[in-house]
Fold this protein.
Amino acid sequence: MNRTDIAIDIDRVVNRYDSVTALHDVSMDIREGEFFTLLGPSGCGKTTLLRCIAGFEDVTEGAIRLRGEDIAPLPPHKRPVNTVFQQYALFPHMTVLENVCFGLRRRGWTEMDAEGRAREVLDLVRLGDFAKRRPTQLSGGQQQRVALARSLAPNPEVLLLDEPLSALDLKLRQAVRVELKQIQRETGIAFVFVTHDQEEALTMSDRIAVMSEGYVQQIGTPRDIYEAPQNRFVADFIGETNLLDVEVSAVSGGMPDLTLPGGMALRCPAADSARAGRGHLSVRPERISVAAAAEDTLPATVVDHVYLGTDIHLHAKLSDGEPILVRIQNAESSAIPATGSMLGLRIEAGAARLLVD
Amino acid sequence: MAAPIDIRRFTGFRALTILCLVVLYAPLVIVAIYSFNDSTSITRWGGLSFKWYFDVFSGPEAPKFRAAAINSFTIALGAATCATTIATAAAVAMHRTGRFRGKTASLALINLPLMVPEIVTAVASLIFFISIGFKTGVMTIFIAHLVFCIPFAYLPISARMQSIPDSYEQAAMDLYATPWEAFRLVLLPLMVPGILSGFLLAFIISLDDFLITNFVKGAGIETLPTAIFGSVKQGVKPNIMAISTLLLGVSVVLVTLSWFVGRAGQSKR
Ligand SMILES: Nc1ncnc2c1ncn2[C@@H]1O[C@H](COP(=O)(O)OP(=O)(O)O)[C@@H](O)[C@H]1O
Ligand SMILES: [Mg+2]
């Protein structure tokens, strides 16, 4: 466990409030210089984990190591990590410049050096002209960038960001995503970024930890998470998917043989712990193609369609009545099948994935 | 949905309001007007004059009033300062330490002077000072005032604290501030409007206390309210109206100031 490229090693961490257990046995490594995202629905323990790293929450069991060193005995002000708080928490009685200088001054920088560094970081977030303003005189997006500058200024070993974009409106949020990612690359500081927005996580992260109810569900690259979800929660939470009840007859070499409702047989990749028996098959709607009904296709009846411009969503029903969603790219050639018509659906072997519940 | 009840529509609302205002403020207005009366009578108007104000500052009773005023302002300043310091510490403890044993009891203790009848506090304080052999004088007045000023200082400070989320101090500590620096550089400046407001309120309360002061003051020591009361016992002269009007002016200014300071703090966030 002593790899030198690991910035933070979170080792079987448990956190309990009086009666609620917010984190169950959470383990993950955050590597140097990576954009690491904690993704999960509200209340799954993301903030709690960040607060454990920053030192505002005690770890009940387990350990958090920063560059190999257990940080449990360090109070928050001695931990070389900085946080961008969800509501920014900019000091309202100080100017933008004083806010950004705050951490540097506490670390013993002279006023002149601190101001020089603060201006440098303010330029990085394109707020050089706003140094003398008060935080209350700035827009939400500008406040967010001041918060970022303030926590970047002391050059922390890891930067923690708690849903920093959730207070911004959609348009701004999308622009800031790109900017934030750029700043992360330029500074080379490892970011631990918290969000409940899967699109944000997919577009920005090097790696993602998907969490639910205090458990880590899966850790991997955005591509891993999207294309090879390990369980039902991950498949369902990230993007849209069809979850079909299937009968698994055997698993050999990680490739199970299974039977779809309606009798079609399929061999596809599976989650690591998949076993024979009943299971769930995840098929992304965009990985299903529509053909004429034939021997080797999955028979379905069209229920409805939704026209989305770039895509068409086809709502269909399998022979056992289970609903299935198919996404067809809107090309000139694509005809929209009429409601009530029979179709054959084709699932490529690599496109489906057997999950464990 | 029923229409919201508009209290102004109730029969007699206007009459009742006017009655209340008259009962509350007419005596004050009359005192203020008659303090400018040229006559020695307190009921007959004899023309406009400032002579009773001169009398307060240079008349036969002037030395007594001056000594009393010095006592009053010194005690009020000292008691309000100490009470505000204690109330600030108490507010931080109440709002920042989570739950602790005896939290509710502590809060009740802070606010006790608001609930106990003042005469009880007065008698109890006197008995206490006598039983421990503490000589009554300026010091006993100061201690008694300090105690009953605490809840008045505490209320605005606590209200202010309620609107300061603890994420500010956490952000400070996250940026390498020790807990003491986080308090001094971040929390305390944010609390200032509440603290000022609390101080002014405590100052006023101390300045115009009569009952408790009258019990615990030693012989020969007077504050403004007890000095005025002493004068009135020999009959109300118009100079009392002048000094009361001055005291009223000070109170109005301080209360208004306290209100504005509290509001300025609120709108800044
Ligand atoms: N101070 C607290 N006291 C008790 N329970 C808490 C406290 N803070 C958070 N929790 C609980 O811990 C769990 C995780 O919360 P949190 O980390 O804030 O989730 P997230 O940031 O993912 O929305 C939730 O179930 C929440 O109710
Ligand atoms: Mg949260």
